[in-house]
Structure formats: structure tokens, C-alpha cells
Amino acid sequence: MSSRSTPRPFGVCGEIKVDELTDFSRLSRWSFEKNSSPELRSPPFKFAGPLDCRLVLHSRGSNYSSLYLEVLYTNIVKKGSYLAFFSFTLENSDHSKSHSRDCISRFTAKKPSQGICKFARPFALTNPDFGFIFDNSVKIIVDLRVLSEAWSITGDNSSKKCSWTLENISLFTDMLSSYQLISPAFETGDCIFRIIVRRTKDDSGDYLGLFLDSTETDISNKDLYTTCWVMFKLCIVNQESASENVYFDFYGRFGGVNKFGDYTKMGQSKHLDWPKFIGSGFLVDDSAEFVLLIKVIEERFSQSLPFHSRTEYSDERLWEIKKFATFKDTLKKRKVLGLSVESMRFEVAKQAFRLVIYPRGNLFDPSSGYTSGDTITLSAKVLLLKETFLEGNAEVEKVGFPVDMDGESFYWELENFIYFCDSSDGISKVIRSPDFIFGRQKLRMGVLCALDGTIVAYLLRDLPVVENLGDGVPLEFECKLALAAPGSKKIVGVFYKAGDYAEMNPNFVDCVERGLGLRDWLESQGHQYIVTDDKEGPDCELEKHIPDLHVLITTPFHPAYVTAERIKRAKNLRLLLTAGSGTDHIDLNAAAAAGLTVAEVTGSNVVSVAEDEVMRILILVRNFSPGYHQVTRGEWNVAAIAYNAYDLEAKTLGTVGVGRTGGLLLQRLKPFNCNLLYHDRLKMDPELENETGAKFEEDLDAMLPKCDIIVINTPLTENTKGMFDKERIAKCKKGVLIVNNASGAIMDTQAVVDGCSSGQIGGYSGDVWYPQPAPKDHPWRYMPNHTMTTHISGATIDAQLRYAAGTKDMLDRYFKGEEFPPQNYIVKEGELASQYR
């Protein structure tokens, strides 16, 4: 069990000498005796204005040491933003081996500390052999330059003027090719912006660049797409003649990241020739001024009510732009031509779309009728055709479609074709296939959905690919039309959300984003497949589908609790599938009474769970967890771990329940030379019993006092629920180690807490809780001597692929009216399996 230790106070270390070069630049030398403390702080020295700063050297274990410059904001000076360049040099007795790193950062009261992570290896600062210790001291030189600046901003949230004056720019000109100067941050619309000044040198010349940057926009809320469309002007002010100001106009959609196709930076890298900037009135008395004029459109972009019972391949969006006439007037005054405004990005079937409007002409004048109080609203309905196109007899034959070997076959499958036949808008729909070549002709198949409901399939010939064959050469073809068959089922799957982790491994299928990889297969057969992680409460997504779903797929790792009440309301429900093993979350008696079938992918993750149990046994026996947490706290105390660490050899281990998982566990424990015992309703297969050497214990209460380690491998039933209560735990050997990956409800929750607290249980480990997910105040999270985790033992990638394949197999059998493998049934058409009776 981990415990929090009281942080150690850290004081000032060593001495610092400062050479002030100007009011805003200084060279500081920090020297201190070699020290193994995890954090060292220099004496304070002047930063800028009324503020001091100090150096902080922080060591993270033996991996690396980080060096930071920390500005000491006080109760008197609580605000202020400062841009500073600092270069750290770790001196070596051999000057050529001195280590230097530099950085430019902006300091604020919220971010007072900036620096270099992984600046040096900690052992190099304590071992004289590396040369960084001489005269028994470590010496660090800091070259510090602080920008003197003036910043002003006027306007409201949709329109601003920002003026940024750099008053000592010469301190930074030698580094502008490597670093950029960044202004204080400001918010406009929903984004956070900064002005960036940078110098660019290439074969064509030397230039000063000016940019607008939005990378600090908050993207922590992954469910909220933060973006705004802006029109802005960047200007370098000529301080001798305003008519010589150099400016450029820009426009575009900005966001915090560019993975959505939005800009995070826009400007002109060659805004002004550097020699002209220095000598033509732009730089006066070491001072330069930059001005930004920025305007943001006020908008609301939302997903409207679904159309055609919205599917993966359809969507509907509304885009509302306020003060649109005012925006058009601004464009007219600035003489901006050819501008287009793009909406936020949205996806349909993994294809990206935007709405684009060109604010010109008279279409959106107040008299046109398309505006409402200076607001326009645009609507977009997107419906994508989900199609498969195959060329050649061999490819077409693979999908089971008959082919004529005397000719050539072309296969065009339209899976959501029915949605395109909607005639409510009074328009006949024509759908055309991709082009294909046959007989030197460019051809396409077509389908016409007429207003009277007639569907016509035809072949369209475009211009010939080569010379026309002439009227005397007939082109024969046969066009077959296949529509969706009746019997479509509604399947609902409940999984956890994986977020960004779903993209890290294509085989990570047990999540909402992948849905066990079943979507394409199910929808290709005309079935509806809905996945969600929202399963709790009367207004959850699952509740919306309970009345009309036919099949419910759940997992033990994010269980949807199928209660008697839910079963009663599920009028169409016929099949409950567990993707994996375990049905603790299903009211089996209610399912049986309703005549349902309940099945699992038996054996799909037994290897994963058995391996996990071996791991947990070793972690408890070797006292691993306290040792690990000791190291992470920066401590080193072998005695505190070794006094309670043992070998697994010669220990007595008993499994309560065997089954497939217990059998694999016993096989894996055989090489450890343990005394193996087991308790179950029936004895194991004699061959497995001889192989493992495990001895059968008919009386559970007689077995428990013999065991140093107990592993729970019995399923949850009415007989096993709460079987390890206070009285049964008291029958175990003092200090017993318990591993439970079977079911949290088999254990009396408070009895386990009391046992761990008193020492009756020497260690408890597992990945099953009751309920799941476990609430934050679940007492097992905070009891001593545990190594609990979330429910992960059976969720390895290998196991996911096995139970995804098993789930698909059972669905396929269900659609065909075939039997499942016998071992997969928990309830078969209303009859409980024997072990659950």
C-alpha cells in the first residue's frame, strides 16, 4: 500500500554572483557544493523591475535533473508578464565539455517557472569523474535578458486593436533567427492569441516576419471543438512617417491544434526587409512597434435534429452568423475582395466537410429576406453513399454473386440506398457508380429513384475510351438490382470510451470507437448497430434503445447492468451476449423467466486472466508494491520491504473454483514447486490433476486454514455471492494473501477492509469490484495492503481479438438460426446452465 510522505522543506543553497550589464540583462554565476538533495534553490537575484528571481535545480530520481528560472512574484507584485531569454551553462573543468542549453519564455504569475527539462544527469552532478565538480562545487552560469515592452489592447471580444512596443529589441536581434518573440496572450472569440515576431534568413535575403498564433487555445476538453474565424491586419509601424507603415491583411479559421485543418499560425515570414527595418524609421532608439487589428465573426455551429434517423453516413448542421451585414460593411470599407468564410469542420463517415460562404453580392442584404435581425442561418444536410464497387469475375464471385464466365462482371453494392429514395423534397434521385472500362468503352451503372417510388437500374455509356466500335458492334450487358432483405435486427453494444488511445493500436477493439470491429459486417447485412458508453440512469443513451433492441452486447469491463426492470421493458430483446466471460451484471433469473438466451465467449480470456493471477500472486508474495512506491517517493530502505518478502516455492496455494482459468493457473504454478490445493463442486479431470499435482479439498472451510495464498476462480451465483464474509475470512490463516479476478460480489466488501486493516489478510489483489466502475469512495481504494486495479485482467489485446471473433461467430449463428457452442450458453431459451441453478 502506498502512503503520502510530508514534503521536505528546501532552503537556499550556495552563493550567486551577478554582473548587471544593463537594466534588463545580467550574467549570474551560481556555485554550490555537491549535493544529492532532490531540489536545490539559488539565492534570489534581480529579474526585472521590482521582481527578483532564482534558479531551481530539480532531480527526478536517477533519470535526469531539470533546471528552471523562477520569478518570485510577491503579494505586492501579483501580476505582470515578462518575456525573457536565458542561457544555462554547466561549467566543466575541461571548458570544451561545458554543457549549455538556452530558452526563451514568457513568465506570468500563473507560470512563474520556466526552464530546461532533462538539463543534466543527476549522477554527473555528484561524481567528480565527470568534471562538473571542481573546488568541490558545481557552477552554473546564467545569461539573462528580459524584454522591456509596452502592451495595450482596446475593443470588445469580437473586435480588438493590439499595440505591442519592444523597447530594447537590440538585446534579442542576434537570436531572432533561432527564437521568436511572443507577445502577451489575449482572448478574442473563443481562442487565445499571441503576436509573434521572427527573423528569417535565406538565399533571397534577410527579413522580419510577423504572425498571429493561436496554439495556446484551450483544447483540454476533447468533446468541445474550440475555434473561431478571424480577419486581421498585421502592421509594422514606421515611427517617422505613418504613410510608410507596412501591413498585410489575412483571414482564416483558427484553433488550438491544426489536426482539424484550422490554422494555428498565420502571417508573413517576409513582412519587411531586415535592413529596411533597421534603417528606415521602423526602429528608433532601440524601439519598434507592432499593431494588430482583429475581427472575429460571431457564430453558432450546431448539430440539428437528425434526418433520415441519422446514421453514421448522414448528418445535419446549422451555422448561424450574427452581425453579418456589419461584417459585409467592414469588408467594403477595407476593400477586401474574394474573401470566403469557412465554418467549423465536421465529419460524416470519417470524411471532413465545411460550409463555405462568399459574403458578396445582394443575396444577404436586409431586403433579400435571408437575414433575420442582421443574422443569417445556413443549414447543411449531408448523406454519404456507403458503397462497394468490385471489378472482374474473380472479385465478384468472392462476395457470392453469380457470374457469367463468358463475359465480365462488375459489382456495385449500395448499403444505405434506401435513404436516397426519399421523395419528400420532390426531386428524383440519380445515383451513378464509379467509371469502369469494358470493350474499350467507359461505362457507369446508374440507379434512378423516381417520384412514384419506381426504381430503375441502367447502364450509362460515356464517350468511348478509344475509337468508336461503330453501330455494328453491339454491347450486351445485364444489370441486376438487389435491395435490402427483411429481417434487419437492432444490435446495441455497450463499451467504454477509449479516446485517443483507440488510435494507438488498430487491434484495440473493445471500445466505443471500434465496437469490436463489427460495424461494417453488421451494416453490410442490413442490421442497425449502435454503440455507447452511456449506460446509467433513466436518461442514459442505453435506456433510449431498450424498448426496441433485439440484441444487447455487454462486457465485464464496462458492464451494463441488465436488471429485471430493463428486461421487462425490452419487448424485442432475444439475445444477451457478453463479449468476454462473465455475466455478473445480468439478472439471470429474470432473463430465464423472459425466455431469453444469454451467452458468453467462454474461454476467450482465460489465458489472460490466469497470467494476471500469477502476476498478482508474485506481487503480493514478494512485497513488490510497497517497494515500488518507496522508490517513486525518492526513498531507499531495503529493510522496510525485505522483512515481509518471501519465495513462492513451498507455499500452500488453494484455488476456490477451478474451471478453465483455475486449471491454467495450476498448470502455470506447477514449476514454482508450490503445494497446490483446489476446491470445487466436482473434481478436475484426472489427467489435469496428475499433471499439476493439485489435491482436491471437498470441504472449503477445511482447506482455508492450510493456505498461505487463496485465489478465487468461482463464478458469481446466488450460492457464491458474499461467500467470503467476516466469519469465513476468520477461518483463513493469519496474514493470508488473497487474489480475486472472479467477481467483487463474492467478497463481503467491509469484511475485506477489516481483514486488511487488522492483518488477518496480509495482502489483497484483484481487478473486480462491486459495483463497477467502482465509485471514488469505494473503501477498497483506500484500505492497506492492497494492489487493486481497474478490471483489466481479461482485456489484453490478444483477448480482445478472441472475444470479438467469438461475438461475431455467435451473432452469425443467431442470424442463421444455428446453435452456439454448448459451453457458451448461460441461459438457453429460458433455461439456466447447471452451474447457475
TrEMBL record:
Q: Which UniProt keywords apply?
A: Mitochondrion, NAD, Oxidoreductase
Q: Subcellular localization, per the record? A: Mitochondrion
Catalytic activity, EC:
1.17.1.9
> Which residues of this UniProt protein bind substrate?
N605
Role played? Catalyzes the NAD(+)-dependent oxidation of formate to carbon dioxide. Involved in the cell stress response.
Assembly and binders = Homodimer.
Family, per entry: Belongs to the D-isomer specific 2-hydroxyacid dehydrogenase family. FDH subfamily.
Q: What is this protein called?
A: Formate dehydrogenase, mitochondrial
Which organism was this protein described from?
Rhododendron griersonianum
